[in-house]
Amino acid sequence: MKEFMMIFRHVPDPANQPSPEDLQEMVKHWQNWIGGIAAQDKFVATNSLGYEGKLLKPDGTVTDGPYAEIKEVVGGYIVVKAADLNEAMSMATDCPNLQMGGTVEVRDIMEIPNAENYGE
Amino acid sequence: MRKTTENELDELIPDLFRTEYSKLIAILCRQYSVASIELIEDAVSETFLAASESWGLKGVPKNPKGWLYMVAKNRIIQRFKREGLFQSYVSTLESESTTSSDQVEWDDAYIEDSQLRMMFAVCHPKLSDEAQIALALRILCGFGIDEIAKAFLSNKETINKRLHRSKSKLKELTQLIELPEPSQLDARIGNVLRTIYLLFNEGYHSASDQHSLRKDLCLEALRLAVLLAHNDLTRSPDVDALIALMCFHASRFDARTNEEEEWVVYEKQNRSQWDQDLIFQGEYYLNRSARGNEISKYHLEAAIAYWHTRPDSPEKWPAILMQYNQLLQINYSEVLALNRTYALYRAEGREKALLEAKKLNLQQNCHYHLLMAELLGSTHSSKAIKHYKTALSFTNSQSLKKLILQKIKDVSN
């Protein structure tokens, strides 16, 4: 089993303000999707990102918020275990982010050998 | 002293044994070191024998517990003297603790503190699960070797050997029993809770047909957790959640078996047999557990167990499904995966659950086939029967076989 990260992106739409019921429904979809992955013992970690943030540039300038210059924002990620990229892709097909008009980028996580292995 | 009838005595001594044995061991180990635990256990057992002889002849003393303690203590000192250990060992301990008069030693807080210390000593992360459970049953709960053997479907020799090995290891790890340093307390409490829950499950899921013994085991696990919950140093939301969880489960204890000692599945249980007091207690501790920022697996399991004490409603299964989703993210187990899929079936319907069940990859698990059969149900009866038959081949339990055969009959009609 290898590990893969799915990165969820979407274009924020200020006109679309979900009601508390909508939010609850969204949470349910996400939790059921993640629960289904965890039930296969293929869940590693997940996080959703908030709306606070700043962007740092090499020249030292700082801009406010993730929205300022990037149209698409990362809303969160999940790390899963899968035999290969194909399996990871098939897990992604049910991702609620797709139903909400966003995208899912699936990437393999590079395996870094343990530090102690270097000595030998 | 007053004269006591033999009948009264027949009840008094076993009762005292049940409540006082583990306290005496804890207090005496605290005073004389875990290194002498076997000697202390012998002395306490002999003390109870002496009580049944002496109290029958001379009547029950005014303060039976004090009597037991004094006699046990004297016996220990005698044994130390006989073995020539007294001067070198006990005398130093005694002189250090001259401030603690017998009055102080019998203070409730002192007893409780001794029991807590013993709990941490026994639930030591470096002891195997098997050792922790055996020691907990014997030392913390005062179960007899016979009873432990019955609970484990084992024999006295095996249990004695296991206890002997476990005590040797315990002595290597601990000399004077103490509460862990404050910095380590949180981590160590985690292990204590784990052992208490194992102990509870040993009683709740044991294959032993000793119904009342298994219930005693569950109630003892509860008692230990309540001790933790009512001490300022060891109380925590996790402890409360574990107590709630155990209360909710234990509330169904009597409804789970019929007069023939056969299993009654949840859907068919007589709800009037559920213990409302325990459910009430569970709700109290579940409310108490709702503080702090962390949700432990005990919180999630307690929430599921709470919903199972409630009648069906539109909120019930979606709520249970949500807790299983979170539990599986903390910790995967095959049972959780199967239970989660069943909750999905109840919350979102057969088709969705079937799709997810097929992804579980648990073809070697008896309960996977039971779940598949349940999901396929009467609409795909021939497929369902195939799964029931596979499940049959995976189990040796007579009561489960009987249940499956009944299900095959139901589906066939």
Write a structural description.
Chain A is of the alpha+beta class and 120 residues long. Chain A is built from four helices and six strands, in the order βαββββααβα. In chain A, the strands form two sheets. Chain A has a four-stranded antiparallel β-sheet. A two-stranded antiparallel sheet of chain A has the order 3-4. In chain A, a hairpin with a 5-residue loop joins strand 3 (54-56) and strand 4. With 413 residues, chain B is mainly α. Among the domains of chain B are: 1-106, no CATH class; 122-228, no CATH class; 236-310. Chain B contains 20 helices and no strands. Chain B has helices at residues 6-32, 37-58, 64-82, 86-96, 102-105, 108-122, 129-140, 145-151, 156-173, 182-205, 211-229, 237-250, 276-289, 297-308, 316-330, 334-348, 350-358, 366-376, 381-394, 398-412. The radius of gyration of chain B is 25 Å and the shape is elongated. The mean pLDDT of chain B is 87. Chains A and B meet through helix 1 of A and helix 15 and helix 16 of B.
What are the SSEs and their pairings?
The complex is a heterodimer of chains A (120) and B (413).
Chain A: E1 2-10, H1 20-39, E2 43-48, E3 54-56, E4 62-64, E5 73-82, H2 85-92, H3 96-99, E6 103-108, H4 115-118
Antiparallel strand pairs in A: 1-5, 1-6, 2-5, 3-4
Chain B: H1 6-32, H2 37-58, H3 64-82, H4 86-96, H5 102-105, H6 108-122, H7 129-140, H8 145-151, H9 156-173, H10 182-205, H11 211-229, H12 237-250, H13 276-289, H14 297-308, H15 316-330, H16 334-348, H17 350-358, H18 366-376, H19 381-394, H20 398-412
Helix pairs in contact in B: 1-2, 1-3, 1-6, 2-3, 6-7, 7-9, 7-10, 8-9, 10-11, 10-12, 11-12, 12-13, 12-14, 13-14, 14-15, 15-16, 16-17, 16-18, 17-18, 18-19, 19-20
